[in-house]
Amino acid sequence: MADARERIDVLDDRIIGLIQERMAVSAVVQRTRIASGGRRVHLSREMEILGRYRDALGKPGTPLAMTLLELCRGRI
Question: What is the CATH number of domain 2-73?
Answer without folding.
Answer: 1.20.59.10
